[in-house]
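Re: the request from the purification team.
They wanted to know what the chain is likely to look like in 3D before they choose a buffer screen. I agreed to run a prediction and write the result into the notebook, where they can find it.
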Amino acid sequence: MRTKDWKPAEPARLLVIGEDSNLQWTDQLPDFPMFADYYFRKIPYDLGERSRYMESKNLFEMIKTLTDFTYKVDEVYVTNLCNDSLERAPKGKRTLIPEAKALKGIEHIQYILDTNPEINLIFACSMQVNYWLQKSGLVEPNEEFLKGAEPRRTGINSLQPFYQPVNPKSFQDVCAKFTKLVGRDIKVLPLLPMKDYPLRDKNLELYGEAYLEVIKSFE
């Protein structure tokens, strides 16, 4: 099974790239990344289904908030860097996207951009996603970030592989700060994973001001 891209009803103008489709509580993959389809359904009564709806709601509410309603929800294309099933990470660790899977995802993203020429902004959600976007040459690189975001060998070589960056703090150098694709007039906005939105506690302290600056840029 493979998670399918969420394709908007109108021509896409904004692309959201999540990390991967693996779920912590089941080996079954969702039909669409970040349960994007749930936002367009009736609000479910079942608690499990309600949590999926809330994830999708947070996604689209974040888009509306950060862009000051510049993009309609029907103009948002949603994918993951990896839509395939991956080996489950140990509890409390992030799923590792192997290089071959990441490069396959990069090729797919290029296809999305080629076939959706009105996309002019990308939300890249997570440190690992931004690492591979830059490492592959798709996005203009920040060398210090690349050094810090590189996966540690301990995680790669673990019996249960997981993603652990050399320096997690290096994401502060790029998060919520615009960059752009190489060779395309498309802005890229590195963001925290969707599970960390709305911002709270330490994330609010570290990234709150940068997120506010994003909103101001659209006013």
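For the purification team: The helical segments are 47-66, 99-115, 127-135, 143-149, 153-156, 201-218.
Please add any questions underneath this entry.
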